[in-house]
Amino acid sequence: IDFDLETYPLEIRTDSAAGSSEKIAVLFYTADENEGDNINNRAFIMYFGSPTQYYINSCTGVWQNFLTTLSITQDDTWTITKTDTGLTVELNGDEVLNYLFSSSSEPDCVDTYNVEVTTIKFDSTYDTASDQYRAGTATGQSGLRDLLKY
């Protein structure tokens, strides 16, 4: 899916319950990468477990607990914003993660994510939670798009 993640935040709608074991799994690609090449090592994955956890491929090494209590309502909008220095996640407008790539103990984290993301993919192997997506408010009034997983 063509998506300028450097300019527009990604909004994802879910109806998943905490403890449901569902996942959000979004892969990030540059203009030079092909989704079919399987060379991608940039991904954000969130697991609706007890507790709900996140994993940033090439950065966190293991599943991480969110440092704040998540108010998951089963009618949620998750907003993912990527900058050159980090990744933020909001739940229904409240920031629940502000991850700095430089805080990682993984040696390739900063270089892996210091790229311009132009394409995203919802990984159907893992993603069972994402129902709809859209570009965030920076794009104006774009509508929600039903998610067709590849």
Shape: globular
What fraction of the residues are assigned to beta strands by DSSP? 35-45%
Structural class, by secondary structure, is mainly beta
Q: What does the largest sheet look like?
A: 6 strands, antiparallel
- Give the distance, in angstroms, between the N- and C-terminal Cα atoms: 10 Å
Helical amount: under 10%
Multimeric organization: single chain
| Overall average residue pLDDT | 87
- Note poorly predicted spans: none
H/E series, N to C? EEEEEEEEHEEE
Determine the number of helices (DSSP H or I, runs of at least 4 residues): 1
What is the count of β-strands? 11
Strand order of the largest sheet: 8-7-6-1-10-11
Cα gyration radius (Å) = 14 Å
Structural write-up:
The strands form two sheets. A six-stranded antiparallel sheet has the order 8-7-6-1-10-11, with no helix packed on it. A five-stranded antiparallel sheet has the order 5-4-3-2-9, with no helix packed on it. It has 150 residues and is mainly beta. Helix content is 3%, strand content 37%. Strand 3 and strand 4 (53-56) form a beta hairpin.
